[in-house]
TrEMBL record, chain A:
Belongs to the V-ATPase V0D/AC39 subunit family. This is V-type proton ATPase subunit. SUPFAM superfamilies: V-type ATP synthase subunit C (SSF103486). One of its GO terms (cellular component) is proton-transporting V-type ATPase, V0 domain. Subunit of the V0 complex of vacuolar(H+)-ATPase (V-ATPase), a multisubunit enzyme composed of a peripheral complex (V1) that hydrolyzes ATP and a membrane integral complex (V0) that translocates protons. V-ATPase is responsible for acidifying and maintaining the pH of intracellular compartments and in some cell types, is targeted to the plasma membrane, where it is responsible for acidifying the extracellular environment. It holds the Pfam family vATP-synt_AC39. V-ATPase is a heteromultimeric enzyme made up of two complexes: the ATP-hydrolytic V1 complex and the proton translocation V0 complex. The keyword Ion transport applies.
TrEMBL record, chain B:
It holds the Pfam family ATP-synt_C. Proton-conducting pore forming subunit of the membrane integral V0 complex of vacuolar ATPase. V-ATPase is responsible for acidifying a variety of intracellular compartments in eukaryotic cells. GO terms for cellular component: proton-transporting V-type ATPase, V0 domain. V-ATPase is a heteromultimeric enzyme composed of a peripheral catalytic V1 complex attached to an integral membrane V0 proton pore complex. Its main location: membrane. This is F-ATPase family transporter: protons (Vacuolar).
TrEMBL record, chain C:
Belongs to the V-ATPase D subunit family. Keywords: Ion transport, Transport. InterPro entries: V_ATPase_D. It comes from the Eukaryota. This is F-ATPase family transporter: protons (Vacuolar). The lineage of its organism: Eukaryota, Viridiplantae, Chlorophyta, Mamiellophyceae, Mamiellales. One of its GO terms (molecular function) is proton-transporting ATPase activity, rotational mechanism. It comes from Ostreococcus lucimarinus (strain CCE9901). Coiled coil: none annotated.
Length: 342, 211, 269
């Protein structure tokens, strides 16, 4: 039943997943001393060969990351092309996150008076939508909504949550996070309409993502002028820590307070062991990947596509870290950035 | 498949089940005035032509088996194709999974042939139009054996298909897993064989003979 | 170097001597002062050199840390944060102010960083959900690096300026020491020797004159004596002749007395 429509895509995704860089790959890449070495390694030993092959001699970290993005997009596009109704909807939901990023990028560019081309160049092709260029010419929230967003899926998130009259930087960051919250909630509703497997797995993954979102916002808002009510507003209405955990997070002032809240949740207890405030961020990443890895263990569900996209993101991040470390001769810090699940 | 048993359908199924039970109990307790008239129902079953049952049995045997096999091949095949995009080496090995599914259809065909050889013309009683008890029994036996084989092979085909698709994916990820999953697949395809054996035993009692 | 005999082309008079002597004194005082200035500058120069080395070392680590902090931010926040930060900049947050510092009369430019406080809280919500803390860290460490950078810049400029100033001063010191002063000294010496020479010449001439005068005086005295003798003899002869011839020739006897008186005063002075 599942396979009739989605078996091919699923198997394809799994095929791509097996070509991810492994622990051994990372170990060997860590031994590279120059970016050229990395390029050669990627070309000969990994699935990136056709993407990095044409890189010109002075290799920059940006170039390698660009190649990874190309591969990610190619893989994702194959999935989209093969997908039919429920899966294609699901994949569209996956792109909304990127769409929000693009929208915010365009808004930022608009405020700074950048040209349309310059803005569109920076946008991620995964989250591209036709009216993106219209965002640039709009000047107020109403106009933005009317010109650019009304035809996009973001419209419903936008109209239900944004009431701000003027656009400035603070508002844009808030818009991004409010949109993201609405998106997660909508995605959750969508996943609840799916079959049993998908629903269970996605519930877990999205709860994790919601918790992660909330914890990160809390940690990142220390020392800023974001009020507690605003902060509370950015939390989703579901998640492992919902509702009392979020309510307590909203009143946190220091990292230690956050830790005290997290200790109560067995899945996050591990995060509170280190004194480094950034350990939580990294730990959340690891937890998310672990959950995604578990989703990949199951067959016949949509969560594997979600997990797949997360793994792609993670790999790009890892390579970014790796290349930057090598380029800046900071190999001693290599370990802290590379996250992988075997 | 497991979708039927998800959270929201369980109360519905439970309610239906209780309702049916109440119906049955009330039906048997009050003779004639219950919801179900069992006597009439009994007449209905005794009067149906045994050849109808035989034919239904044969049809079920081959039809359900082929449906199961096709389903299995579909599941296996789509996964196999997808996985083969990245690892072409798995295609020839994983044909075994497809062949296992195919075997399920062959079981159905075999049973259908065995059952159809049992069929012989037996005239009904010219006065009442009823058939002899042994003939009736043979008709039901053929029906039951066909249905047994068909349902068993249907489920077996799906089972082999699911395991086969996992086998293809696992093989693509890690070649050493192939044999291990193949063993499981063999156990799965043995299920169909159980149905076949029971069907043969059932049908061996069925004899259409003139009395 | 100036040759031992080099001197100014002057007329050796007492007035010139006084002028040159005052110039020499000026040159020596200038030399002393310049020497002090050069020492002060060199001291400062050495200090700056030490500071530069230290600042460079600090800047290297600071820049590296800043870059790495940015990498961390990118890692935590992904591409979105990068673009948000890049797009979020429209005017400089940190201004560099230049003012002057005075070391022994040399003006040294000095740069200081000043943060425009109004923009302090602008970007603080960037990356709220992803890597905001990291972005702030990166911002802080870049701010630190900029401070160091401007410090290094003012040190480097001071270094170059001081270098130039020290070179000029040293050149002046050397010129005074090895060229101007010896020349003046030589000139003084020359004038003095020239004056001495003149004095000696005069003395000698005076002496000569004196000698001549003496000789003249002696000669005159001798001639007078001879004349007297001759006159005496002539008188004697006359007297004798007169004694012979009395009367007729009395007039001549008077004429002989006049010549005698004419020889009396024959002095040069």
């Amino acid at each position: 039943m599942f396979n009739a429509k989605n078996g091919f895509s699923e198997a394809h995704v799994r095929g791509c997943q097996t070509k991810r860089l492994t622990k051994q790959n990372y170990a060997e890449l860590s031994r590279c001393d120059t970016l050229e070495d990395i390029k050669t390694y990627l070309q000969t030993m990994s699935d990136y060969s056709e993407y990095v092959r044409d890189l010109q001699a002075p290799v920059r970290p940006v170039d390698i990351i660009e190649c990874c993005r190309k591969r990610q997009i190619a893989e994702f596009n194959i999935c989209c092309q093969q997908a039919s109704s429920p899966l294609s909807n699901f994949l569209e939901y996956l792109t909304y996150g990127y769409m929000i990023d693009n929208l915010v990028l365009a808004l930022n560019g608009m405020l700074r008076g950048r040209t349309t081309e310059a803005i569109l160049e920076k946008c991620s092709p995964i989250g591209f939508f036709d009216s993106l260029s219209a965002v640039v010419v709009s000047s107020s929230v109403q106009e933005l909504y009317r010109l650019a967003l009304v035809d996009t899926p973001l419209a419903s998130y936008f109209s239900s949550s944004i009431k701000a009259e003027d656009l400035d930087e603070l508002n844009i960051e808030l818009i991004r996070n409010v949109l993201y919250k609405e998106y997660l909630q909508d995605f959750m509703v969508f996943c609840n309409k799916m079959d049993q497997n998908t629903r269970q797995l996605m519930e877990k993954l999205l709860s994790m993502e919601a918790d992660r979102h909330a914890i990160r916002i809390t940690l990142n808002s220390f020392g800023t002028e974001l009020s507690k009510a605003d902060r509370r507003n950015l939390y989703t209405n579901f998640g492992t820590m919902y509702p009392d955990g979020f309510a307590r997070l909203a009143n946190c002032e220091t990292v230690d307070e956050v830790k005290r809240i997290l200790v109560a949740y067995p899945e996050f207890r591990e995060l509170t062991k280190s004194d480094d405030p950034h350990y939580i961020d990294r730990g959340l990443r690891v937890l998310e990947l672990e959950a995604c890895g578990q989703a990949l263990d199951e067959q016949f569900n949509f969560a594997i596509f979600y997990a797949f996209v997360k793994f792609q993101e993670n790999e790009i991040n890892n390579l970014m870290w790796l290349t930057e470390c090598v380029a800046q001769r900071q190999k001693s810090s290599l370990g802290e950035g590379i996250v992988y699940i075997q | 498949m497991p979708g039927i048993l998800h959270g929201r359908s369980i109360p519905v199924i439970a309610a239906l089940w209780t309702f049916t039970l109440v119906l049955l109990v009330r039906g048997t307790r009050t003779e004639g005035s219950g919801f179900i008239d069992w006597a009439r129902l009994w007449v209905l079953f005794t009067r149906i032509n045994p050849y109808f049952f035989s034919a239904m049995g044969i049809a079920a045997a081959v039809g359900l088996s082929v449906a199961g096999a096709a389903w299995g091949i579909f599941i296996t095949g789509s996964s196999l194709l997808g996985a083969a995009v990245h690892t072409p080496r798995i295609t020839s090995k994983n044909l075994i999974s497809v062949i296992f599914c195919e075997a399920v259809a062959i079981y159905g065909v075999i049973i259908a042939i065995i059952l159809s050889t049992k069929l012989e013309y037996v005239p009904s009683d010219p006065d009442t139009g009823a058939f002899h008890r042994t003939t009736m029994m043979a008709g039901y036996a053929v029906f039951a054996s066909g249905l047994t084989c068909g349902l068993a092979n249907l489920v077996c085909g799906i089972c082999v298909g699911v395991v086969g698709s996992s086998c293809a994916l696992a093989d693509a990820a890690n070649p050493t897993l192939f044999v291990k999953i193949l063993v499981i697949e063999i156990f799965g395809s043995a299920l169909g064989l159980f149905g076949v054996i029971v069907a043969i035993i059932l049908s061996s009692n069925a004899v259409f003979e003139k009395v | 170097m100036s040759s031992a005999g080099a001197r100014l082309n002057v007329t050796p008079t007492v007035t010139t001597l006084a002028v040159i002597k005052s110039r020499l004194a000026g040159a020596q005082r200038g030399h002393r002062l310049l020497k002090k200035k050069a020492d002060a500058l060199t001291l400062r120069y050495r200090g700056i050199l030490r500071d530069i080395v230290e600042a460079k070392r600090k800047l290297a680590t600071s820049m590296r840390d800043a870059h790495f902090a940015w990498t961390r931010a990118k890692y935590a926040g992904g591409d979105a944060v990068k673009h948000a930060v890049l797009d979020g900049v429209d005017r400089a947050n940190v201004r560099v102010m230049a003012h002057e510092d005075n070391v022994a009369g040399v003006k040294i430019p000095k740069f200081t960083c000043r943060k425009c406080g109004a923009d302090e809280r602008r970007m603080e919500l960037t990356g709220l959900a992803r890597g905001g803390a990291r972005v702030r860290e990166a911002k802080a460490s870049y701010g630190e690096a900029i401070g160091l950078l401007s410090e290094l810049a003012s040190l480097q400029t001071a270094f170059v300026t001081l270098d130039e100033a020290i070179k000029t001063t040293n050149r002046r010191v050397n010129a005074l020491e090895n060229y101007v002063t010896p020349r003046l000294q030589n000139t003084v010496k020359y004038i003095l020797s020239e004056l001495d020479e003149l004095e000696r010449e005069e003395f000698f001439r005076l002496k000569k004159v004196q000698a001549k005068k003496k000789k003249d005086i002696e000669e005159t005295e001798m001639m007078e004596a001879e004349e007297e003798k001759r006159i005496t003899q002539a008188v004697d002869a006359e007297l004798r002749a007169f004694g012979d011839v009395i009367g007729g020739e009395g007039g001549r006897g008077a004429g002989g007395n006049l010549i005698e008186s004419e020889h009396d005063e024959d002095l040069l002075f």
